[in-house]
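Running this now, will post back.
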Amino acid sequence: MTAIHQTITLEHVDITSPSFRANPFPTFRRWRDTRPVVPVRAFGERAWIITRYDDVLAALTDERLVKDRRNAQDPNKKQRGMWTPGFVKPLQRNMIDSDAPDHTRLRSLVHQAFMPRLISQMQTRIHRLAHELIDRVEAKGEMDLVDNFALPIPLVVISEMLGVAEPDRAAFHRWSNVMVNVTKPSNGILAIPSLYQFVRFLRRLFREHRLNPQDDLTSALLQAESEGSQLSEDELIGMVALLLSAGHETTVNLIGNGVLALLTHPAELDRLRTEPELMKSAVEELVRYTPPVLFATTRYAREDIVIAGTCIPKGESVLAALGSANHDESKFENPETLILDRQNNKHLGFGLGMHYCLGAPLARLESSIAFQVLFERLPNIRLAVNPENLRWNSNLITRGAKAIPVKF
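Update: finished.
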């Protein structure tokens, strides 16, 4: 394909800034209206943000946009890149950053281990856990919704599914935070000690499970076979790291963002309380309205690609803006309005195609139980601060408030 000559002017918007994360939707709308494929600076280089629903939908399944950067680069040219220690490399190679046939093999293996049985078994556990968390804070009359409720539910669930003992869970969460916040070289250098501890912990976890298999996800991954293939230990490290971060960081934001949206829309919260049958559609609407994942994980142009009249050069980074697509007025009527019984809600909050979120059923289950228990147990729950004063994380992919103080 012949490249289109174009003048490229970067948008000077810091998409990792707390102010942008707090309310990116006006910026997304401006881009959809005026510049639907917009170049910004991210990861210390140029990246292209795709903003319109139809373009995002197409990008998520476009084989010209690959997940493994090496598949978009000229093999005869020496590629620049930040040096990383050898022990970190397994964390950089996982299912979410691979293309077929590697992705097909890895997803097949983990799909066998991530059985519906394991998820359905967690329903009673999630209910009990949500009640236990409320029990701990009920007499105080206040809590940080994130630290005291939204975080412990998915963290305990994924830790128990992976067979991580309770004393190790705080460190497990800390390491996960470090991983998802490596968005520039300086973060990566500062993260090295934590990543070393994490990899060392995982190798020990695997040794213990090989010697004494359990009825958990780690043992299932160790034993999973697909056409005679098993996960190597490095692949296991990448897989468990992915399950850890994707398995709880996103759901923390879904619960936190969802409760925040409901507390600031009391009429919709009242509807949910009086019409509990709305819960299923409410979860889908909250994923759309206040997305826990703002951008799909990075893709790379395998060749020069023209999208919405803009040429994305070969090898460059592409960010499909799920949060923008889910507010596209050409697909959603009154997209800036929270409508818990919204019909035809074909949001892209969990992605699409072969990289569709493997943990979506678990996230839906955890959040629906969390909302149900929270609003039943704490009928007078309310925000303890002005929503405009909340601080938002700066992680590129996910979107959530760092803390949400509430009173009841």
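The mean pLDDT is 86. More later if anyone needs it.
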